[in-house]
Write a structure and sequence with these properties.
The complex is a heterodimer of chains A (165) and B (199).
Chain A (H helix, E strand, L loop, with lengths): L1 H19 L1 H24 L5 E4 L2 E4 L5 E3 L7 H13 L4 H32 L1 H32 L8
Antiparallel strand pairs in A: 1-2, 2-3
Helix pairs in contact in A: 1-3, 2-4, 3-4, 3-5, 4-5
Chain B lengths: L2 H42 L4 E7 L2 E14 L2 E11 L2 H4 L1 H11 L7 H30 L3 H7 L3 H30 L4 H5 L8
Antiparallel strand pairs in B: 1-2, 2-3
The chains are: A mainly alpha (165), B alpha+beta (199).
């Protein structure tokens, strides 16, 4: 357990440092966040033609309300935590890869729901927006990471004995 | 329903209750946090931090810095005071509590585990708040504050990294990591595959 925690925290620290480096920001985080904003706006445009996106901003033409997708809201940190949790666990590389790909997809799917819900909550009530943004959605995304990790543990345990165990 | 499904449902039931209790008690939770921060930051930066006190469920920092402030037409010198929000680090408390309450196989040790977890999360909040206060002193006040801090260029880069780590990573990772460590013996119960029997 101690070895797992040390490897996990080292991986989190390493990946997080790369994310914050200028090369990580310009090469991945900013383009990725812009893509998240465009996809969120695209989904909202299916039922709301007032929504526009540019860069990491999403705004409503009618109300003038805008949100900027910042660090912590793009799902990158949650992804880093899941990747580190799976990589640190002793299992086959194929199973790790499947867990990471499927897990990241579920995190980003839930994150799109977070962004869209926050966009409308913010136009309705600022106090609820602050609560949902700062506390509730942060917790739900991390709960998602935990559940995905537990499901992956269950799935990979049915695929035979793990190496190094 | 699978054990993971039952566990998820229980967490989702406990979460609103834990969040409600935490928010209503936050005015009390902030008291030990502010007292510990006052001792820590006044010791670490005696030339910068005069006092740290609770302010509702926020924390108010009175610095040793002064700034000119236009007041009733005349410029007067006033202490630089700012507040930070401890709740943005403290939501790990209701999250962790909901995880503990939803965990399978409660026994006499569970309450002890929860107390230990809360103590660790107290340190997590302290770390995040100390990093944020130092970040505000370094980047958001004035040159005098930066001079008194006296960090090297690398020190400021390190501070930015520590602040981001304390804000974005620790409050979300800590409850899960503590919970997995404490309830690792119950994990096999949770991740066992669903077995179906045919009549």
């Amino acid at each position: 357990m101690v070895r797992y925690v040390v490897v996990f925290l080292s991986l989190v620290g390493f990946l997080f440092a790369i994310e914050l480096l200028p090369i990580g920001q310009t090469g991945f985080v900013l383009p990725f966040t812009s893509a998240i904003a465009r996809i969120s706006a695209g989904l909202m445009q299916l039922f709301d033609d007032q929504v526009q996106a540019q860069g990491k901003l999403i705004w409503d033409h009618g109300t003038g309300f805008a949100v900027s997708i910042e660090a912590g809201c793009n799902g990158v940190e949650a992804g880093i935590i899941l990747v580190a949790a799976i990589l640190a666990f002793p299992s086959r590389w194929r199973e790790k890869l499947i867990g990471i790909v499927v897990g990241l997809a579920t995190i980003q799917a839930l994150n799109l729901i977070r962004i869209i819900s926050l966009f409308y909550i913010g136009q309705w009530n600022r106090t609820f927006f602050e609560w949902a943004h700062l506390y509730v959605w942060q917790t739900l995304i991390m709960l998602d990471v935990l559940i995905v990790f537990l499901l992956w543990l269950r799935w990979q345990s049915t695929h035979g004995p793990t190496p190094n165990q | 329903m699978s054990p993971i499904g039952k566990f998820t449902l229980k967490v989702l039931i406990w979460l609103p209750l834990c969040f409600g209790a935490w928010y209503f008690l936050s005015i009390l939770f902030v008291l030990p946090v502010a007292a510990a921060l006052d001792g820590l930051m006044s010791w670490a930066f005696p030339d910068l931090v005069r006092a740290i006190k609770p302010d509702g469920n926020a924390v108010s920092i009175t610095t040793q810095l002064t700034a000119l402030q236009a007041d009733l037409g005349a410029a007067v010198k006033a202490d630089v005071v700012f507040t930070v929000n401890p709740l943005i680090y403290g939501y790990c408390v209701p999250f962790y509590t909901a995880l503990v309450l939803a965990a399978p196989g409660h026994d006499s040790k569970t309450f002890g585990y929860w107390i230990i977890g809360m103590l660790i999360l107290f340190l997590v909040q302290l770390f995040g708040l100390a990093a944020e206060i130092t970040k505000v002193l370094a980047f958001n006040i004035n040159d005098e504050a930066r001079e008194r801090l006296g960090f090297s260029a690398l020190g400021y880069e390190g501070l930015a990294l520590v602040y981001q780590f304390g804000y974005l990573i620790l409050p979300v990772v800590s409850p899960v990591l503590i919970w997995i460590s404490q309830f690792r013996h119950q994990l096999p119960q949770l991740i066992q595959p669903v077995t179906t029997t045919r009549p």
